[in-house]
Amino acid sequence: MIPLTPLAASLPSTVPFVGPEAQERARGAPFRARLGANENAFGTSPRAIEAMARAAAEAWQYGDPENFDLKSAIAEHYGVPAARIGVGEGIDGLLQVITRLFVTDGTPVVTSAGAYPTFNYHVNGFGGRLVTVPYRDDREDIDALLDAARREKAALIYLANPDNPMGTWHDADALRRLIEDIPEHAVLLLDEAYVEFAPAAAQLAMSVEHPRLIRLRTFSKAYGLAGMRVGYAVTTPEMASAFDKVRNHFGVNRVAQAGALAALQDHKFFRRMLADVHAAKVRIGAIAAAHGMTALPSATNFVALDTGFDGTVARALVAALSARGVFVRMPFVAPQDRCIRVAAGPDELLDVLDAELGAALAEATSVVAVAG
Amino acid sequence: MIPLTPLAASLPSTVPFVGPEAQERARGAPFRARLGANENAFGTSPRAIEAMARAAAEAWQYGDPENFDLKSAIAEHYGVPAARIGVGEGIDGLLQVITRLFVTDGTPVVTSAGAYPTFNYHVNGFGGRLVTVPYRDDREDIDALLDAARREKAALIYLANPDNPMGTWHDADALRRLIEDIPEHAVLLLDEAYVEFAPAAAQLAMSVEHPRLIRLRTFSKAYGLAGMRVGYAVTTPEMASAFDKVRNHFGVNRVAQAGALAALQDHKFFRRMLADVHAAKVRIGAIAAAHGMTALPSATNFVALDTGFDGTVARALVAALSARGVFVRMPFVAPQDRCIRVAAGPDELLDVLDAELGAALAEATSVVAVAG
Question: Any idea where the Aminotransferase class I/classII large domain is (chains A, B) (predicted)?
Fold first, then answer.
């Protein structure tokens, strides 16, 4: 017996997501199309890759624990003071810091049923009590989130805009009203991991401030640096400074800082990437339509494809695609779990999806028909 | 007001170490000799640098959250089962995971006064109660640590072997006796960050197991990858699996995993690095002796240099060296704070130390004499 805290003893040894590598080890072959983790298969700015290769030669030195250069560049990018920025090991790392600051035994926290599981993992990990509200028309339901937060006296409200896993969004006006209505007992976490892909109307100005608002952004998606673990919060100086109470000060790796800085400054690559992602999403929609599936409107770099069936068929479809070398994932709860989720990527990856989707769908529907 | 937990509200926004970059920003110039963070200035295996540069091009993909390849390689390196290995974001990241598993409000934790401050930061951060025992003859005092742990019913005992900041060590026999005596209520954290530099007699065999023993090792020091944040625990499968309850599963960056794997396998570079570090420590001792200072015996990649004065002079010396472009640090508590701590490095860095030490020491002693 090891003397774990009562909370730690009560937690499962769990994992929010099984990685594609584990699936590849299980199936004994690499995926031919890695489209399941909302990664940016259009890759990373060549200037960022070069900056990381250069920084690798200095990897014997710790990274700057204050992330000064990166913070300054982010602040300049948005025209906000650097004191409003907090940098962390991806949004996942920041969610850990933030839940740790606000959640203890029994703290009520409000999110949507089927929203980001890693947030739930951290809330549970600090002993919080998750209160969930359902999606409404495949979007997170702002009014229901607010109602639940007021009713439960929640300390945290989580909203992703655009949403993962559905790709749907709310316009900036709706967000502005939500922010005006943040209850006094609550901090709003606005997870904007995918916001760079969103239409202008869904992009809330960075000048919008509130003492209990934390906006989370990342280099993992639009900047193609998922593997480097760099995210940031834009919030108040008071909040950003509170992160220093508990964060792993040397946690953001030196090469990651260099890569993020260079990626942020490569506007040309960024613009082409946005166009490539848009075209790929159009093609994913066409591939889906050719097999009787419907693409939901998407403000992200992925598309939720409505199978027209239920979660059982969608799960069978994910498995059948995986067996054929196509890695995708799907929403966790009904009725969103009628969909599968496919990330934008270059044509050579979408060709594989195109070639395999028909047979995989036939297999998924027949397996389920037999089982039924 | 933001609704922090009572524990979070009670914590200072602190930083265990001010980074050299912050000092460089303050002095308006880069250091000429970066010898203060126990980094390995002999650098990283060229094979590891190449592996990282290659991996940078795949940075759009998340790293394997199971760290499978790296774990397997570490297991093979030591001839132990992979289930005994837990990988994390440096020893700092692992210390956060471990304190979180074992420390809650008021949990007693035993360490040495003046030992690793980042461990203390995490213990305080989870509300633990630190109980410290003094060093004895510049070494951590195993008997005193055990006595305090029994008296306080401590949940964690922290011992670094070799020790940081003094560079001193205990032989494997003493460690074996300590491990046999771990109280039933306690887990022993044996921090072996510097063990690869230690004499064979101070290297405890990896076959030594105990249900409440966690050994911590890192790629930051001997493998020259401080900037990449990769550490690992060798412990029981039960303990390693408990890490999965709370760790940031995608936290170890993809490029870092690739670099650590390649560094572990470059035995030739490793052997030459050990010889280089040894020679540099001899030279640091000679430089110190030429200015009337004494090098303590060191089982690490750094040397504690006894100034022959007290903490006031040593602090003034660290400041005077910093003003002259030489970054070093020093122990935090008396009487160890009579020393400064200098990392091994190539001759061009030690040349700077050699050139500046005399004047810096004269300045430090005269300033203190005037102040006195």
Answer: 35-352
Pairing outcome for strands A231-234 and A213-218: antiparallel
Helix, strand, coil abundance in chain A, percent, nearest 5: 45, 15, 40
| End-to-end Cα, chain B, rounded Å | 45
A228/B255 Cβ within 8 A: yes
Report residue A318 as tokens: 């994910």
- Please give the angle made by the CA atoms of A21, B83 and B254, to the nearest 5 degrees: 35
pLDDT value of residue B372? 54
Q: Which residues of chain A have pLDDT under 50?
A: none
Decide if B55 and A227 are in contact by the 8 Å CB cutoff. Answer: yes
Model pLDDT for residues B253-306, shown as the tens digit of each residue: 999 999 999 999 999 999 999 999 999 999 999 999 999 999 999 999 999 999
Q: What is the pLDDT of residue A104?
A: 98
- Asked if A244 and B15 come within 8 Å (Cβ–Cβ), the reply is yes
Can you give the pLDDT at residue B300? Answer: 98
- C-alpha span between B255 and B49 (Å, rounded): 10
Residue B99 C-beta-side C-alpha neighbours within 13 Å? 28
Average pLDDT in the B84-104 region?
Answer: 98
Residue ranges of domains in chain B = 19-43+268-365, 46-265
Quick one: pLDDT at residue A367? 75
A27 secondary structure, DSSP code: H
Q: What is the mean pLDDT of residues B216-224?
A: 98
B-chain residues within 8 Å CB-CB of A270?
A: none
Q: Cα(B358)–Cα(B362) distance, rounded to whole angstroms?
A: 6
CATH no., domain A18-43+268-371: 3.90.1150.10
Stretch B70-79: mean pLDDT = 98
Asked if B187 contacts B214 with a C-beta cutoff of 8 angstroms, the reply is yes
- B19-43+268-365, what's its fold? Aspartate Aminotransferase, domain 1 (3.90.1150)
Model confidence band, residue B371 (pLDDT cutoffs 50, 70, 90): low
Q: Collapsing DSSP states into helix, strand and coil, what is residue A242?
A: helix
In this complex, which of B2, B34, B93 lies closest to A238 when CB atoms are compared?
B2
Reduce the secondary structure of A120-171 to three states and give it as a string: HHHHHHCCCEEEEECCECCECCHHHHHHHHHHHCCCEEEEECCCCCCCCCCC
Contact by Cβ (8 Å): A72, A257: no
Amino acid identity, residue A185? H
Q: What is the pLDDT of residue A288?
A: 98
Domain A46-265 = CATH 3.40.640.10: yes
Q: Which two tokens stand for residue A186?
A: 């609550």
Cβ neighbors of B190 (< 8 A, separation 6 or more) are: B159, B160, B161, B175, B204, B213, B214, B215, B216
Which tokens sit at B165? 């900041």
* Whole-number Å distance between alpha carbons of B351 and B27: 21
CA–CA distance, B322 with B320 (Å, rounded to integer): 5
Q: Output phi, psi for A33, to 5 deg.
A: -140, 105
Signed CA dihedral, B45, B51, B56, B62: sign only: negative
- Which of B186, B190, B189 minimizes the C-alpha distance to B154? B186
Token pair in block for residue B300: 């690490």
Tell me if A52 sits within 8 A of A258, measured CB to CB: yes
Residue-level pLDDT at A1 = 79
| H/E run at residue A235 | none
Q: Find the closest chain B residue to A120 by CA distance.
A: B246
Contact A250 B92 (CB under 8 A): yes
Contact B60 A37 (CB under 8 A): no
